[in-house]
């Protein structure tokens, strides 16, 4: 019996999720059984608790497999690409922080993500420049938080 | 009862710096709550690393985060009422009667009534916290490792049976959190576990990296899909002062909501979403004689608002006395304490009265500040609703990078933040909640250490877990909570079968 009321695609992604979680339980359990140690002051040692967790996760993922339901439909096409682009831009901006400096990298990030969230080029660029300046002043001078620095602008 | 900790606390919370910090927390919290897409847990996740790296002392960080937490519970009503888009699960019920009231041109009144019941719920919750927390911590001093381990079991069972519509997903979330907590050096044996020979993983997965990945990166990805459904903001028009008769009519609903909220808050892991849902359905059953609930009944607005604010205070009870968070948001705050190398537990009241007292005192001050801020300034906060996502989301991402970078300046932590964020997004699409993962993570080490210590005491004999009367009571409570949903659904079926068929 399934409790799902959703469309078939949702059930399928639940099933895939359950299989992945089961695989995770197995891999985690295998790795746990290989933990090497010479001495432990307690009778249980460092292996048993992780092994219990692996067992519990395996059991729960089986239940999940046979009683799926409740997942959302996946984004398609452009929306999916945009969803992936968000963490992608964060990665690019972080890599560029060393060579370009905080302000430029943030301008790039804010402009790019702003575009993804529907701003026009003009507004996204303005938002990028303004936010870069605001965050820089806030963190550097008001809150004195360490910022990843770059060389080009001396930040 | 010894309340001296509270007086110490007021002297801490009333220091000029902490008053300013508390005010900033309440203000930011109300804004964060009013933002349609994010709630208290996202706000705290974003601001925690920055508070930490600014070098604030632990009690000031707690005052800041507590201000954000209570502020966001106040602010959540603004987007629910004016926009019909709740910022987080705890504000969903507020929209049911709040938004219809706003559509009838009574937005100002709705905001005032909900502000007042938020205040009553908040203050009653803090009073409960003040008296209940020392009692519980006195009781918990008798806890040994075995009792603690069983307590954790109870916490996870409560979570599984009360949070979310799918217990399996909630429990899987807990186990994933527990697994993440096992990564790194095992202090008892000196073994490295699941580090894949990566030296940076030796200390385990960094809390800040995990929290920001789960609550900020995955949130940003999700907001992309959910942004299309935005409605229009209702302008605050007409009278802004609630009718006296309406306020009187809400008294019962507000008081009941406060009590329900506090009790649900004290239960481990169950936060505002459960509290406001329970209080709304209870109030509907008690008061809804004319079928006005859902069409703009002030009582249906007052009950969940009182409840979610009382929950915020109640959730601190198990967190401060047992080290078991009472909600997802307090789980993040517990992780914040761990950053300061403070392990909450029954000793906390004796050892750090300035921290516990300061936090509790700041909640009294904060609720008064919030009432003042939220009645006259509500139209100011409602402007936040028009902030477009193309400004908000990049801002969240900048804060995330700075937060992670300022606490652990390494590329690996940024990569892990992104990886965890993408996995979090996948899990959320599958209908998983992120809070159980955090709960499992902050409880993981304590749970394992206590299990192993208990068995070290007994020499490997498992019966130690069932020996003391405290453990037995906890096992019975866990069993009761586990069967509760089945009993309730069975009873509901009985009632439905017995009721006459209504066409």
UniProtKB/TrEMBL annotation, chain A:
InterPro entries (UniProt xref): DUF1468
Superkingdom of origin: Bacteria
Domain DUF1468: 16-148
Keyword terms: Membrane, Transmembrane, Transmembrane helix
Transmembrane segments: 48-66, 123-143
Name used for this protein in its record: Tripartite tricarboxylate transporter TctB family protein
Organism of origin: Microvirga makkahensis
UniProtKB/TrEMBL annotation, chain B:
Protein name (record): Tripartite tricarboxylate transporter permease
PANTHER family in alphabetical order: TRICARBOXYLIC TRANSPORT PROTEIN
Bilayer-spanning residue ranges: 12-38, 44-69, 110-133, 139-159, 171-192, 204-224, 322-343, 355-375, 387-405, 464-488
Domain of life: Bacteria
Alphabetically ordered keywords of this record: Membrane, Transmembrane, Transmembrane helix
Residue intervals of the DUF112 domain: 21-439
Origin species: Microvirga makkahensis
One Pfam family of this chain: TctA
């Amino acid at each position: 019996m399934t409790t799902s009321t959703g469309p078939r695609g949702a059930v399928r992604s639940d099933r895939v999720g359950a299989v992945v979680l089961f695989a995770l339980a197995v891999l985690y359990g295998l790795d746990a059984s290989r933990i090497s140690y010479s001495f432990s002051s307690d009778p249980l040692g460092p292996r048993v608790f992780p092994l219990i967790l692996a067992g519990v996760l395996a059991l729960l993922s089986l239940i999940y497999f046979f009683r799926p339901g409740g997942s959302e439909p996946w984004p398609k096409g452009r929306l999916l690409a945009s969803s992936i682009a968000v963490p992608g831009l964060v990665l690019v901006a972080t890599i560029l922080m060393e060579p370009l400096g905080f302000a430029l990298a943030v301008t790039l990030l804010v402009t790019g993500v702003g575009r993804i969230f529907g701003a026009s080029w003009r507004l996204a660029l303005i938002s990028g420049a303004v936010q870069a300046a605001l965050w820089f002043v806030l963190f550097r001078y008001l809150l004195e938080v360490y910022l990843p620095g770059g060389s080009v602008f001396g930040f | 009862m010894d309340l001296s900790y509270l007086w110490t606390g007021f002297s801490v919370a009333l220091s000029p710096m902490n008053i300013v910090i508390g005010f900033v927390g309440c203000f930011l919290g109300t804004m964060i709550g009013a933002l349609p897409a994010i709630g208290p847990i996202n706000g705290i996740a974003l601001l925690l690393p920055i508070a930490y790296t600014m070098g604030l002392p632990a009690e000031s960080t707690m005052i800041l985060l507590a201000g954000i937490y209570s502020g966001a519970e106040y602010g959540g009503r603004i987007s629910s009422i004016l926009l019909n888009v709740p910022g987080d699960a705890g504000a969903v019920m507020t929209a049911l009667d709040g938004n219809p009231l706003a559509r009838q041109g009574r937005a100002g009144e709705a905001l005032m009534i909900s502000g007042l019941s938020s205040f009553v719920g908040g203050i009653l919750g803090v009073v409960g916290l003040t008296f209940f927390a020392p009692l519980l911590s006195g009781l918990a001093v008798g806890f040994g490792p075995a009792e603690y381990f069983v307590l954790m079991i109870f916490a996870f069972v409560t979570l599984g049976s009360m949070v979310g519509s799918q217990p399996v997903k909630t429990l899987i979330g807990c186990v994933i959190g527990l697994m993440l907590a096992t990564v790194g050096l095992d202090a008892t044996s000196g073994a490295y576990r699941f580090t894949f020979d990566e030296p940076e993983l030796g200390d385990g997965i960094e809390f800040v990296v995990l929290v920001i990945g789960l609550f900020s990166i995955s949130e940003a990805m999700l907001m992309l899909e959910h942004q299309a459904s935005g409605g229009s903001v209702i302008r605050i028009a007409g009278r802004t002062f609630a009718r006296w008769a309406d306020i009187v009519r809400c008294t019962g609903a507000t008081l009941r909501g406060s009590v329900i909220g506090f009790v649900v808050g004290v239960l481990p892991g169950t936060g505002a979403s459960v509290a406001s849902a329970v209080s709304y359905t209870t109030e509907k059953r008690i008061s809804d004689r004319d079928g006005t609930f859902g069409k703009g009944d002030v009582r249906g607005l007052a009950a969940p608002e009182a409840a979610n604010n009382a929950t915020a205070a109640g959730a601190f009870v198990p967190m401060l006395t047992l080290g078991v968070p009472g909600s997802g948001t307090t789980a993040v705050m517990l992780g914040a304490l761990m950053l300061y190398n403070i392990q909450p537990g029954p000793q906390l009241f004796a050892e750090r009265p300035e921290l516990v007292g300061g936090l509790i005192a700041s909640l009294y001050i904060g609720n008064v500040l919030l009432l003042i801020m939220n009645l006259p300034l509500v139209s100011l906060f409602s402007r936040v609703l028009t902030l477009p996502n193309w400004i908000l989301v990049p801002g969240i991402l900048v804060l995330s990078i700075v937060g992670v970078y300022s606490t652990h300046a390494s590329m690996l932590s940024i990569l892990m933040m992104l990886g965890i964020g993408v996995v979090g997004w996948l899990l959320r699409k599958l209908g998983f909640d992120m809070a159980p993962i955090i709960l499992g993570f902050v409880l993981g080490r304590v749970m394992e250490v206590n299990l192993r210590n208990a068995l070290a005491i007994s020499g490997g004999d498992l019966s130690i877990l069932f020996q003391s009367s405290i453990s037995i009571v906890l096992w019975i409570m866990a069993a009761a909570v586990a069967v509760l949903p089945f009993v309730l659904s069975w009873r509901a079926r009985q009632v439905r079968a017995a009721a006459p068929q209504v066409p």
